[in-house]
Amino acid sequence: MMAPAIQDLMPYQRLTVGRQLLRELFFVQHGFEVSGAYVPVNQLRDLVAATLRALQQNPEKVSHIHRRTVGYNTEYFRYARKLASVDFSHASTIKLIQYYQRLNYFQEISHGYAIATTWFVDSDSEDFSKLLLQRTRSILQKVGDERNPAEVFSLLTTPTRPSMALREELASFRILQKIEANLAARRLFRNGDAGTIARGLKRLPQILRRSIYRHWRKWRWVPFTYLGPAYGLDFYLTTWSNLLREDVTTTRHLANLREQLPRVRIAQRRLLRTLKVGPADRRLYALAAEIIWLKAYRKDALFHGMYVLERLHTEIARRLHLTVNQVRFLIDDEIVRALKSGRCPPAVPNARMKFCVYYQFGRQYRVHVGMSARRFLARQKIEREPRTRSGRLEGTCACPGRARGTVRVVNQPEQMGKMRRGDIMVAHTTFPALVPAMKKASAILTDDGGITCHAAIVARELQIPCVVGTKIATQVLKDGDEVEVDAYKGIVRKL
To answer: What is the pLDDT of residue 48?
Structure first.
């Protein structure tokens, strides 16, 4: 159940906007699919407007909240790493509850502390993105510069701190360098499949073998998201093998990765001077870059935490005589009560696994199942996005550029196999497990949007044209469609 992630939305709004404007939320769950998450429109719009005011009127306060959020997420990483080496089967019930509650505490505060700026401000109509894009147009008009506003906007809001994805890629290519430097390793990785390479590792120098295993253990959580799985060793062995066969110039690629952020810093400073951007607008661009980096960092911390939580869930399931899937459909305080009593009726999670609605009001919640859930939904007036028949979609430019290609709709990791290099990747939203597919795309389109979304962040790192916030791309495009993407204008045309 998403309870900790939902509960953190409520109290932490006050930090940024001074009061709790969003008071209600519910999500609908069919099995393991969250088919929709809904909030009252007027409450959401009030929160978005208040957050935009805070960004413009109190930038130092917002930055302070962001710094605190970085600290909480760093603590979350550290605590989860510590738990990753604990044998929970030897822990007392009290100790197991303490581990579980502490991990949930970090999940809630690290994800929620800056929730207004890292989630809600761009969640409805990409309000912050549109504000910045309009500011960019005004700045260009004022100095008579004919540059494309989308390119300027994209550059000035690009983070200059390394993301976890960049750090992992640097570490991965350093391993590849070591493989290339050893003749036996080079032959093994060039000529063998994952199974052959795994069996042949024992013949490689110990220091190289340890580096390979250390990299896998450190980064295997990256694609985990909420349910896993994590990467197996074969993923990395296959990745390095394919790179060797493609004759990628490792030294040059490493140099490009290391120079990526310094190049961005230099280009930003030069552009800010050329366009004579004033202090207020400079601060707003800096806050945008801050938010983009922070949103990615807190998402990484959350997914790493979920990877470790899976081990806790496994032990909790054993003690309560439930399956791990049944434990997943219990809310955190229910799990604590069940551990204390030593029992949990399986009927509760079983009913939720079929169909349920989770409703949050302030700090209170209720879970509706079966007919109760259907009656609850029948009382709601849910806004629907209209479909277009014009053959054209519009969204927000996340990374400028143009591309033409064949559509591949990829919403889940198991759909990544259909992606071919040069295809146009279309997704409702993206997350770390989909990055291998994103690397093959000539352009990325998403329903979800804003400059702070995952697709926008990855597209900028990969320099792939990207349009986000189309709202209906996955509804009107299907595998095999041919499209033309003009990310400069945020327009997609079906050919």
So the answer is: 96
**What is the pLDDT, as a whole number, of residue 5?**
64
- Residues 43-53 pLDDT 10s: 999 999 999 99
Q: Please list the ranges in the chain whose pLDDT falls under 70.
A: 1-5, 387-390
The vertex-463 CA angle with 214 and 422, nearest 5°, equals: 95
pLDDT of residue 14: 94
The 3 state secondary structure assigned to the chain is: CCHHHHHCCCCCHHHHHCCCCCCEEEEEEECCEEEEEECCHHHHHHHHHHHHHHHHHCHHHHHHHHHHHHHHHHHHHHHHHHHHCCCHHHCCHHHHHHHHHHHHHHHHHHHHCCHHHHCHHHCCCCHHHHHHHHHHHHHHHHHCCCCCHHHHHHHHCCCCCCCHHHHHHHHHHHHHHHHHHCHHHHHHHHHCCHHHHHHHHHHCCHHHHHHHHHHHHHHCCCCCCCCCCCCCHHHHHHHHHHHHHCCCCHHHHHHHHHHHHHHHHHHHHHHHHHCCCCHHHHHHHHHHHHHHHHHHHHHHHHHHHHHHHHHHHHHHHHHHCCCHHHHHCCCHHHHHHHHHHCCCCCHHHHHHHHCEEEEEECCEEEEEEHHHHHHHHHCCCCCCCCCCCCCEEECEEEECCEEEEEEEECCCHHHHHHCCCCCEEEECCCCHHHHHHHCCCCEEEECCCCCCCHHHHHHHHHCCCEEECCCCHHHHCCCCCEEEEECCCCEEEEC
Give the pLDDT confidence score for residue 2 in this predicted structure.
Answer: 67
pLDDT at residue 1 in the model:
67
In which residue ranges of the chain is CATH 3.50.30.10 found?
A: 392-494
Task: Give me the pLDDT at residue 390, please.
Answer: 66
Q: What is 392-494's CATH number, 3.50.50.60, 3.40.50.10490, 3.40.50.300, 3.50.30.10?
A: 3.50.30.10
- pLDDT one-digit tens code per residue, 22-42: 999 999 999 888 888 899 999
pLDDT of 183 reads 96
